[in-house]
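A.,

Following up on our hallway conversation. Structure tokens first:
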């Protein structure tokens, strides 16, 4: 894993609009959502990239089982 860190403002840039990549923080780690087909549109079940989705993922049908499939790109400082 990279030693890169993201503040809330830095993570917000990775929403697929400001920057083409889509990242999200979950439990202090930042994941790259870009290659996931489910994130091809502007949102995924109402969730938007570039945010801390730690709470949102606890309500998802897949819970955290999807996380091992994603690349960790850094740590989230909030």
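Then the amino acids I'd put at each of the 78 positions:
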């Amino acid at each position: 894993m990279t030693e890169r860190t993201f503040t809330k403002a830095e993570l917000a840039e990775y929403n697929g609009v400001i920057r083409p990549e889509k990242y999200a923080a979950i439990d202090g780690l930042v994941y790259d959502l870009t290659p996931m087909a489910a994130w091809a549109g502007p949102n995924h079940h109402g969730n938007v990239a570039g945010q801390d989705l730690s709470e949102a993922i606890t309500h998802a049908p897949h819970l955290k089982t999807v996380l091992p499939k994603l690349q960790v790109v850094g740590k989230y400082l909030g």
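The chain has a mean pLDDT of 90. Curious whether your intuition agrees with the design.

B.
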